[in-house]
Amino acid sequence: MYMADLLGLIEGMDLHPHLYSDDTQIYGFCAPDEVSALQQCISTCFAQISEWMKVNRLQLNAAKSEQLWCTSPRQQDRLPNIPRHVGCDIVQPVRCVRNLGILTVLSCFAALRRLRSTLRSVSQAVLLSLVTSLIMTRLDYGSAVLPGLTSHLLSCLQSVLNAAAHLVCHARKYYHVTHLLPDLHWLLVLERIQF
Questions:
Q1: Share of the chain above pLDDT 70, in %
Q2: Spatial distance between the Cα atoms of 164 and 109, rounded to a whole number of angstroms
Q3: How far does CA 76 lie from the centroid of its chain?
Q4: Dihedral angle computed from the Cα positions of residues 53, 58, 59 and 64, in that order, rounded to the nearest 10 degrees
Q5: Which of residues 119 and 71 earns the better pLDDT score?
Q6: What is the chain's alpha carbon radius of gyration, rounded to the nearest angstrom?
Q7: Confidence of residue 142 (pLDDT cuts 50, 70, 90)
Q8: In terms of domains, do 73 and 26 share one?
Q9: Same structural domain for residues 87 and 140?
Q10: Which conformational region is residue 14 in: left (phi greater than 0), alpha (psi within -120 to 50 degrees), or beta?
Q11: Residue 87 has what pLDDT?
């Protein structure tokens, strides 16, 4: 009920919401000469969300709210780079954001290295459970924001999945994962994102 109201509020202003359990991202698109109109629309939406949250006994954490403009490097200097006042809150412009706290490929490989040290101590079922909870959940956690990812970044994520399959199946490093993934009932990264 609450989420439907929030979605309606955001979409009613011709903006695009992306909702998570404790995070909401609002996207808007415009031509370079319509930046101030979009900025005003987002500010109005932010103020309405803040009011909606107060009415529903929720609290907006304005300190964590950020504004990011995505454009070509040539157009970047034409965009406003000043903090926006929304009610009594200030929303800071930023040049980069951390989306959902998605962990990198390096941290997944670090977790796999730590799991490798337990190979002799745990059964394959326990190892599979550990890989599922520590690696697969990390890969799936941010899949909502991964559609359209470049083939290079997809291959990096796929390499994590391949390494996890090798670890669980005790396969040699260069053994092809074509047979391992179906045996484990795992989808390829691109298929996981689409699923």
A1: 86
A2: 9
A3: 23
A4: -80
A5: 119
A6: 21
A7: low
A8: yes
A9: no
A10: left
A11: 61
CA angle 154, 161, 140 (to 5 degrees): 75
Identity of the amino acid at 155: S
Q: Which of 27-36, 67-76, 156-165 is predicted least confidently? A: 67-76
Q: Are residues 130 and 155 in the same domain?
A: yes
Structure tokens, 88: 């009594």
- By the 10 Å C-beta count (0-12 exposed, 13-18 middle, 19+ buried), 119 is classed as exposed
pTM above 0.85, yes or no: no
- The predicted model gives 85-106 an average pLDDT of 66
Boundary (domain end) residue, out of 59, 94, 129 = 94
Q: If DSSP states are collapsed to H, E and C, what string results for 79-134?
A: CCCCCEEECCEEEEEECCCCCCCCCCHHHHHHHHHHHHCCCCCCCHHHHHHHHHHH
Does residue 194 surpass a pLDDT of 60? Answer: yes
Contacts 24+ apart (CB under 8 A), 5-9: 5/52, 6/49, 6/52, 9/45, 9/48, 9/49, 9/52
